[in-house]
Amino acid sequence: xxxxxxxxKPGEPAGQMRLEAPQPISLATKKPxxxxxxxxxxxxxxxxxxxxxxxxxxxxxxxxxCAAGLVAPLIxxxxxxxxxxxxxxxxxxxxxxxxxxxxxxxxxxxLLSKPVALIxxxxxxxxxxxxxxxxxxxxxxxxxxxxxTSGTAKFALSSASNIGLGVYKDQVYARMFGPAGAGVARxxxxxxxxxFTMRDCLTIFASFNLPMMLGPGVxxxxxESLSRQVSGQTVVQFAAPAFVQIFSTPVHLLGLDLYNRPxxxxxxxxxxxxxxxxxYKNWGISVLARLCRIVPAYGIGGVVNSKxxxxxxxxx
Length: 316
Prior knowledge:
Blueprint: H1 2-6, H2 36-46, H3 53-87, H4 92-105, H5 107-111, H6 114-140, H7 152-176, H8 190-229, H9 232-243, H10 245-260, H11 272-314
Helix pairs in contact: 3-4, 3-6, 3-11, 6-7, 7-8, 8-9, 8-10, 9-11, 10-11
């Protein structure tokens, strides 16, 4: 009866408290669930590669500066010779000799001259535009800093930069090295600007887009032994800009002729046939001269820009 009244087990003394072993306490905690808004923010942050972003921009500037500084003096000499030959101011060979003589005897004056500065501006800006697209894409798409693109954005920005800076450079060169005794420099006609723009679009596409598009195929075609020595992209980087000069040079010469020999409203001269004869006359030697400038500008300069940029990016 007492057992039943105490609610205990049979045989336990009445009024005695029964002790039980303590239950283990779980220390595991439930991870907090991210709200929908926080999850979206974190997912967006994970899409951006902002590591060392300031240093990556600095690497873009440094590589473009190195490449432009390396090629600017030579390109300046060649561009001047083409302009003076087209205007009749001097033969191409005489112009080159004069510039080389100045480079040897007065290097500081030559390297700090306005013609060299204009070339440095034009090509430094072009290289930097291409680098900027690569860094922006690698940042937005969370890709490695060494990424090199070949899309429409790169072509558009590089073309805009090269055309804007290049056409400005060309109209200054045309006035500086135009026909002797022409008096006050004339304005460059709109048709010349359009032709210079077409010329630069051809060159930019061959220099910045074709290497990435054709490089893998050329690399595979080189075979195992040759591909160890040189990459297919490097081969196209040199060959494509040079090859396109066959087509872009007459466009360039026609633009110069429109400035050097403005059309007379009264006589209608020079006629289209006369302009073509002038372009054809200077086509061969001008192609050779532009080959000599394009290989440094987009071959050597392009390779130096990409190699220096990649080397700097790999260290970040």
